[in-house]
Design brief:
CATH superfamily of the largest domain: Creatinase/methionine aminopeptidase superfamily
CATH architecture of the largest domain: Alpha-Beta Complex
Distance between the termini: 11 Å
GO biological process, one term: proteolysis
Strand order of the largest sheet: 4-3-2-1-5-6
Radius of gyration: 25 Å
Family: Belongs to the peptidase M24B family. Eukaryotic-type prolidase subfamily.
CATH class of the largest domain: Alpha Beta
Number of helices: 19
Pfam families: AMP_N, Peptidase_M24
Organism: Bicosoecida sp. CB-2014
Protein name: Xaa-Pro dipeptidase
Length: 530
């Protein structure tokens, strides 16, 4: 952990060494995914699943931007990726429910394709690459299914509770000749995706490691005077150059100062274009994906690398909330209870720090937490950042503010992967409403609040800390090895901690709480220093 010879913080990002390399993808992962879906289909459908049933799914379609010939980089439809792992667009996949045999249907490409896009690969290539039993062309789909003579075609149709959009159901000329059931497969796929396999967890750990290194590179490089998008650019470069992660898993959020109070800042109308100012708090929520598996990590830190007293108050309240949840998270707990625990812990810290006054139980009854943290505690994560399965059949949203934003209300089970991302934000319209509500306004010390927020004027912004965790049989493993204590954050910003394993060792040496897999990483780091 010695820092002799390390560069100044402005150059530290270029010195950070990546401690991981891109893994080779074993496509048997997707064969096991297919088997899990078939098992679910039989379990959920029972005696209604007939002999000679076939699953039919359609992959994503190559598209152009509006009326131009520009083709944005294709990213596979998530359910199709889960089942087949195919990178190319315009494919179909069929699975024999009785045997598990998989057939991939690929587009028949014109000869001119070879001129512009490279060699036209034969079906045998795709069969070997993706580990399927048979590869045919899409224009053979109708004939192939006719030959299979399925008693029923199970197609994918279901509502994604995060987006409100329906999964795309397979369609082709001739499907009307078959008996189609679109009511069972979606649940079978979603429930399989909710519980991650060992293969999936290995990919998620990898992409988390890349993301954490990239976040630390950004923190070491950040200084007043830069533009937010320059720091976004550094993150993107790091993930691709060092980690092979070509795609971000969502739009990068690089909110500094007041922008940190905009939960999904960074969109087209607010494109991470503010200049970083001395005294700003930075809230950077960024993740990448590898083989379509996502990371979702948020770090918050002072732009100049040193916390003020007020910044520390808000930051440590959020950190206390996150650690309380990490300590309590295990199979059998309800996610709504974890959300309430985050509220209670943060409110207690803010009361102890002087921003709030009064009894925390009364604050909870007034739902004061939703004023300062209007979003849910976290969400499932996997092939999608907001992964599917949050609201299974029969689950209802809690109507209370804050709670109604929860992306799942499920009881936690081993094998789930969730984000734990409490935050505190000074959002103008929410605080304005709270100040007009006597039941909520009575809990704020107006003089202290004025240091953080003035109606229609200044705002501290916000702090969010987001870690990605695997629920284990008796607790959780935190995949996110990022600086979390004030001391760790300041050390990384100053360029004194320069790699992922180093931060794990730093946590262990400082006797800070470390969760799950971080302990092994810390031990490996200490061993490597000998």
């Amino acid at each position: 952990m010695a820092d002799e010879g390390l560069p100044a913080s402005s150059d530290a990002a270029s010195a950070i060494v990546v401690s991981v390399s891109p893994p080779t993808i074993d496509f048997s992962l997707h064969a096991r995914n297919r088997a899990a879906v078939v098992d679910n289909l039989k379990r959920f459908g029972g005696a209604t699943v007939p002999e000679k049933a076939v699953i039919l799914v359609q992959g994503g379609v190559a598209e152009t931007r509006d009326d131009t010939d520009h083709e944005p980089l294709f990213r596979q439809e998530s359910n199709f990726h889960y089942l087949f792992g195919v990178r190319e667009p315009d494919c179909f996949g069929a699975i024999d429910v009785a045997t598990g045999a998989a057939t991939l249907f690929i587009p028949r490409l014109p000869d001119v394709y070879a001129t512009w896009m490279g060699d036209i690969l034969p079906p045998a290539h795709f069969q070997a690459a993706y580990g399927v039993d048979t590869v045919l062309f899409v224009d053979e789909l109708d004939a192939a299914l006719t030959a299979m003579a399925p008693t029923v075609l199970y197609t994918l149709r279901g509502l994604n509770s995060d987006s409100g959009n329906y999964a795309k159901e397979a369609a082709f000329d001739g499907i009307e000749k078959h008996r189609v059931d679109n009511g069972l497969l979606y649940e079978a796929v979603v429930e399989a995706r909710v519980i991650k396999s060992a293969d999936e967890l290995a990919l998620l750990r990898y992409v988390n490691a890349v993301t954490c290194d990239a976040h630390m590179a950004v923190m070491a490089h950040c200084r007043p005077g830069l533009l937010e998008y320059q720091l976004e650019s550094l993150f993107r470069h790091w993930c691709y150059y060092h980690g092979g992660a070509r795609n971000m898993s969502y739009t990068c959020i690089c909110g500094t100062g007041k922008n940190g109070a905009t939960l999904h800042y960074g969109h087209a109308g607010a494109p991470n274009d503010k200049r970083v100012e001395d005294g700003d708090m930075c809230l950077f929520d960024m993740g990448c994906e590898y083989h379509c598996y996502a990371s979702d990590v948020t770090c918050s830190f002072p732009a100049n690398g040193v916390f003020t007293k007020d910044q520390r108050l808000i930051y440590e309240a959020v950190l206390a909330a996150q650690r309380a949840v990490l300590d309590a998270l295990k199979p059998g707990v309800k996610w709504t209870d974890m959300h309430a625990l985050a509220y209670e812990t943060a409110l207690t810290a803010l009361r102890d720090g002087g921003l709030l006054v009064g009894d925390v139980d009364e604050m909870m009854r007034a739902n004061l937490g939703a004023v300062l943290m209007p979003h849910g505690l976290g969400h499932f994560m996997g092939i999608d950042t907001h992964d599917c399965g949050g609201y299974p059949r029969g689950a209802a949203r809690d109507p209370r503010d804050g709670f109604k934003s929860l992306r799942t209300v499920r009881e936690v089970r081993a094998g789930m992967v969730l984000t734990v991302e409490p935050g505190i934000y000074f959002i103008d319209h929410l605080l304005k409403g709270a100040m007009a509500d006597a039941d909520k306004a009575r809990f704020f010390d107006a003089a202290v609040l004025a240091r953080f927020w003035v109606e229609g004027g200044k705002s501290f912004g916000g702090v969010r800390l987001e870690d990605d965790v695997i629920v284990t049989e008796d607790g959780c493993e935190n995949m996110t090895i990022a600086p979390r204590t004030v001391e760790e954050v300041e050390a990384v910003c100053a360029g004194r901690v320069v790699e992922r394993l180093a931060i794990a060792a730093y946590k262990a040496r400082a006797d800070a709480p470390v969760y799950g897999g971080a302990l092994e990483l810390a031990a490996a780091a200490r061993k490597s220093k000998k």
